[in-house]
Amino acid sequence: MSDSIDLIVKLIPLFPLMAVIVNGLFGHRYSHDLAHRFAWGSVLMSFLCVLAVFTETLRTGAAREVVAYKWIFGGDLTINLAYLIDPLTCIMLLVITGVGFLIHVYSVGYMHGESGFTRFFVYMNLFMVSMLLLVMGNNYVVLFIGWEGVGLCSYLLIGYYYDKVSAAKAATKAFVVNRIGDAGFLLAIFLVFVNFRTLDYTQVMQNAAQLSPEMATAIALCLLIGAVGKSAQLPLYTWLPDAMEGPTPVSALIHAATMVTAGVYMIVRNHAIFDLSPTAMTTVAWIGGLTALFAATIGLVQTDIKRVLAYSTVSQLGYMFLGCGLGAYTAAVFHLMTHAFFKALLFLSAGSVIHALSGEQDIRKMGALKSKIPWTHTLFLIGTIAIAGIPPLAGFWSKDEIMGHAFVHHHYVLYGMAAVGAFLTSFYMFRLTYLTFYGTSRLDHHTAEHVHESPMVMIGPLVVLASLSVIGGFPGVPPENGWFHHFLHSVAGVAGEEHATAPALMLGLMGTATVIALLGWGLAHYFYSGPSSAADALAARMPGVYTTLLNKYFVDELYDRLFVEPTKQIGRLCDWFDRTIIDGLVRSIDRGTDASSAAITWTEKHVVYAGLNIIGYANHLLARSWRRLQTGMVHQYAAIIVAGLFILVHLILLIWTGSGSNGYLSR
Amino acid sequence: MTFPLQDLLTILPELIVIGTACLILALDPILEATKKDVLAWLTLGALAMCIGLTSSQMTGRVSAFSGMVVIDAYAAFWKLLLYIVTGLTVLLSLAYLKAERLSIGEYYGFILLALAGMMVMVSGADLLTIYLGTELMSLSLYVMAGLKRTEARSLEASAKYFVLGAFSSGVLLYGISLLFGLAGSTGLSAIAAAITAHGTGDPLLSLALVLLAVGFGFKMAVVPFHMWTPDVYQGAPTSVTAFMAVASKAASFGAFLRVFVEGLGAASADWSVLFTVVCLATLALGNLVAIVQTNIKRMLAYSSIAHAGYALIGVVVAGGHSGEGASTGFASVLLYIAIYSFMTLGAFALVGMLRKEGQESDQIEDYAGLAKREPLAAFFMLVFLVSLAGIPPTAGFIGKFYIFMAAVNGGMTWLAIVAVIFAAISAFYYLRIVMVMYMREAEGSIATHSRLETSPALSLVLACALAGVVLLGLFPNGLWSLASQAAPLLK
C-alpha cells in the first residue's frame, strides 16, 4: 500500500510533464482537439492522484517523504529530488490541481481560435509541473526550481499576445522584479545551509530552535524578500497589475489562484524560523496590512475590469501575509484556499464578460449586461459577495478569522487597516459589478450587436468554482476550531492559535465584519446602481486624490526613475567608458604613480614605455596595410591594461604595507 | 639532446595533435577545394584518439621532461573538456565555413595548433612551458580571428587581438622573469619552495604576482583587462569566436589556477584580495554593459566576461582557505567553466548560423519573430539563455549554485550576495533576447530573409550542447566528482 502511494506521489508532476513533452514536440502535427485533451487530461490525472494521496494522508495523518532520485551530492551536501507530503502540501495540491483542472477546461473555450493554441497549453502544463514541484519538494532546492519555473512560465504566458508591445514589456517587468525576490530567496537558502548543513525541511525545522535570534531574523527576512516578490507585496507588487496583459485564464490560474500564493506557502512552510524572530513577524504583518490597504485604495478608481481584480488580488494576498505575521498560519492557508476559489471565479467570469464583448476590458464601456449574459452575471455576483466577506460565503470565514486574530491579539492598528481594507474591497467589488452588469448600457453599437453568453465549456467550470465559493468556508467553521484547523494542526499550528476566544467577542467581531462589508455594498449601491453622477462629482471635488489613485500613486514612475533608468545609465556609461576612455584617467594614474615607491617607477620605465613602444612600432607596421584600423583605440586599450596593472600594484602595496619586510630586497 | 621514450609517451596526446596539424597543413594544398571536409574528419579522428589516451591518464601524477610537464587528474580534466569543445567547434566550423563560402583547409590545422598550445598550458609545471603553450595558442588564434580576409572588421579584430595580446604576453613574461630572479628557477615547485623559505613580504614578489595576474587576466578576459573581448568577439568569424570564448578561456583558467596554486599558493592571502577586486569589477562591468548591447555577439562577449567573474569567486574563496574549503572552491571553478562551455558554445553556434542573404544576422533585432520562423532554433536558444541566466533546472543553475555555495561555506557571504544580485540583473539581458524571439513580430527584410542555415553538423553541435546543458543540470554528480578529484589542493 505504502509503495503504491509513493508511486502515485511520483506520478503527480509526471502527468503534466508528459503532456508538455508530447504537445511540445508533436503538437503541431495533430489537431487542436487532441492537444487540449492531452493538456486537461493530464491535469485531471494529477488531480485524481492527489485525491488518492489526500485520502491516505487523512487516514494516517502522518507526513510522507518520497525520494524520486538523488540529484546533487558530494562532500557534505546531498540534495534529492524528493517530495514531502503532509497536510499543508495536500491542501496546496488540491487547490492547484483542482482549480488548475477547471481553468484548463475553461481555456479550451476561451482560447478557441487563438493562434498558438497548442503553445498556450504547453506553457500552462509546464506551469503546472513547476507549481507542483514548488509545493511538493521536501527541500529548499526543489522549492527553488519550482519557484524559478513558475516565474519563467508566468513570463512566457504574460507575453503570450506577443504582438502587443505592452504584453512583452509587462512580461519582462514581471520576470525582473521576481528575480530581485529570487535573489533574496537564494541567499536564505545559503544561510540555511551554512547553519544547518542540510537543506531538507524536516531536519531544518527540527533544529530551528538552535538558531541565534539574529540569524533567524536574517534568514526570515531573506525568505521574506523572496515571498514579497512572488506574492506581489509592497514594495515589489508593481508587476502583478501589468501581468494582466496575459490571457485571462493565465490571470486566473497563475496570478490569482496559485503562483502568487507561493510566497504565503513558503512562509508557512518555514514558520518555525519565522516564529523565532519577532522582528521578522512584525515586518511580515505590517507588509501584509499595508499592502491590503494600499492596493485596495488603488482598486477604487481603476477602469480596467482585470486590473481592478489584480489590485484586489494584491490586497487579498496582503491579508494572507497579515495572517502569517500574526502567527495565524492556518487562517492564512485557509484564506489562500478560499481566495483561490472566488478569485479564479471572478477572473474567469471577467474573462466571460470580455469574451462576450469581443475583447473589451474597460468598464466605462460596459453596463446593463445582466439580462444579456445572465449566467455570467450570477456567477460574478457570487464571486463578489464571497470576496466582499458577506456570510455565509467562503471569503467571510477566512478573512474574518485573520481580522479576528489581529483584534484578539491586540494589534488594533493592523485590525483597523484590515477593516478599512475590507470596507474598500466590498465597495470596489460592488462598484465593478454595478458598472459591468447594471445601470445603462455604454456599449458601442458594434460590440452590442455581438454580445453572447459563453459556451458550456466555459460556464461549467465557473459553476463548480461558484459552488466552492459558496461552501468553501465551511471546513473552517467554527473559526479556529473547524475541520481545517485540526487537519493542518501538525504543520501550521502554533501556540498563539490555541488562544480560546470568548464566544461573545467572536460573534461581535463577525457582526462588525458583516456590517463593514454591507456598508461597502451600500455605498457602491448609492454611487453606481443608478445613473447617478455622485461618483464623478466626488472625483471632481478631490482631483488630487483621484489622480494619485488613478495613477497608482506614481510608484511605477518612481521605480523607473530610481532603479531602472539609473541601471541603464550606468550600463551606458560603462559602455561608453569601454569604447572611449578618458585620457585623464590614465594621466591621473601616472601622477599617482610618481608618488609611489621605487619599484613601481622602475616598472613604469621599463615595462610600460617599452610596451607602448612595441605598440607604436606594431601599429606603424600595420597602418601601412590596413589604414582603416582604429589605431587610437588600441593605444587606449593598452593604456587601460596598464592602468589596471597600476591599480593592482597599488592594491598589493596597500596589503603589503605594514607587514615587515623580510624578503629578498633586504637580504 | 635526447628524451627518454617514457617522456614522449606521456605527451602522446600533444604529439598526436601537433602531428595531425602538420599533416593537415601538408594535405591542404593537395586536396581539391570541394574535398576539404576530409580535413575536419581527420581532426575529429585525432581528437577521438586523444580522448581515449587522456582518459587513461586520469589517476596519479606523472612528471616528464625534468618536471617541465606534469600529467595529473587536473590536466586530464581540462584536456578532456578542451577535446570536447574543440570537437564541437570543428563540427560547427564545417557548417560555418560552408555558409561563409570559405574554403580554407589550414583552418583545422590552426585549431589543432591552438589546442596543442592549450594542452601544454594546462599540463605545464614550469612557467616557461606554460608561456610557450600560451603563445602557441594565441598565435593560432590571431590568425584565425583574421580569417575572413575580405572583411575589414575581421582584420581589425585580428590586429587588435594581436597587438594587445603581444603586449599582455610581454607583461606575463616580465612577471615570469621577476619570479625567476627571486627563486632561481621557473619551475612551479621550486618557486613555491622559495616563497615558503623567504616569506611573502617582498615587493618584488608582489610585483611579479600582479604582472602574472595581468597576463592571465588578459587571456581570461577579466576587468580591467577585457577591453579587447567585445571588439574581437564581434569581428572574428563566429566559429572562431566560439572557440575563443570557450576553449581559450578554459585553458587560461586551467593554467592560471595551476600557477597561482602550485607556484604561488603560499602568497594566496595576497592574491585572493587582488582577485576579489578584479572579480567585483568583472561582475559589475560585464553584467551592466551587456544590458545596453544591440549586437548579440557583443552581448555574449560581455556575458562571457561576467561569467569569468563568477568563476573568479571560486578562486577568491579557495585562496582564502586551505584544505577542504579550498578544494571545494577550485572544484566549483572547474565545474563552472565546464558548464559555461556548453551553454556558450550552443549560443554562439546558433548566432553563427542565423543568416540574412549570406551575411551573419547578428543584431539582436534580427531575432524578432524567430520563434515563428524557426521554432526549434528559438527553443534551443531559449534553453541556452535560460541556462546562462542560471535558472534551474539547467546546468547554468548548478554551476552558480556550487560557486555561491562555496562562497557562503567559505564565509564570504557578502560576495555571494553581490553575485546573486548581478545574476538577477543578468536575467534582464538574456531574457531580452527571449522576448525578442518570442514576443516580437519580424519586420521587413528580417521576416523574409533572416533564417537559420541548417546542416547535419550544426544539428549535432546543437544537440550536444543542449544535452550538456540539460543533462548536467539534471545529473551533475558525475562532473562534480570529476572536478573534485581534479581540483588542486593548496599546499
TrEMBL record, chain A:
The chain crosses the membrane at residues 7-26, 38-55, 91-108, 120-136, 142-162, 174-196, 216-238, 250-268, 280-301, 308-334, 340-357, 378-397, 412-434, 455-474, 504-524, 637-657. Residues 71-121 form the NADH-Ubiquinone oxidoreductase (complex I) chain 5 N-terminal domain. Keywords: Membrane, Oxidoreductase, Transmembrane, Transmembrane helix. Its EC number is 1.6.99.5. One of its GO terms (cellular component) is membrane. It is a multi-pass membrane protein. Coiled coil: none annotated. PANTHER family: NADH-UBIQUINONE OXIDOREDUCTASE CHAIN 5. This is NADH-quinone oxidoreductase, membrane subunit L. It comes from Nitrospira defluvii.
TrEMBL record, chain B:
Keywords: Cell membrane, Membrane, NAD, Oxidoreductase, Quinone, Translocase, Transmembrane, Transmembrane helix, Transport, Ubiquinone. It catalyses: a quinone + NADH + 5 H(+)(in) = a quinol + NAD(+) + 4 H(+)(out). The chain crosses the membrane at residues 12-31, 38-56, 76-97, 104-122, 128-147, 159-184, 204-228, 240-261, 273-292, 299-321, 333-354, 375-395, 401-431, 457-475. InterPro entries: NADH-Q_OxRdtase_suN/2 (IPR010096), ND/Mrp_TM (IPR001750). The keyword Mitochondrion does not apply. Coiled coil: none annotated. Residues 126-425 form the NADH:quinone oxidoreductase/Mrp antiporter transmembrane domain. One of its GO terms (cellular component) is endomembrane system. It is found in: Cell membrane; Endomembrane system; Membrane. It is a multi-pass membrane protein. The keyword DNA-binding does not apply. Its EC number is 7.1.1.-. One of its GO terms (molecular function) is NADH dehydrogenase (quinone) (non-electrogenic) activity. GO terms for biological process: ATP synthesis coupled electron transport. NCBIfam families: NDH_I_N. Belongs to the complex I subunit 2 family. NDH-1 shuttles electrons from NADH, via FMN and iron-sulfur (Fe-S) centers, to quinones in the respiratory chain. The immediate electron acceptor for the enzyme in this species is believed to be ubiquinone. Couples the redox reaction to proton translocation (for every two electrons transferred, four hydrogen ions are translocated across the cytoplasmic membrane), and thus conserves the redox energy in a proton gradient. NDH-1 is composed of 14 different subunits. Subunits NuoA, H, J, K, L, M, N constitute the membrane sector of the complex. This is NADH-quinone oxidoreductase subunit N. It comes from Nitrospira defluvii.
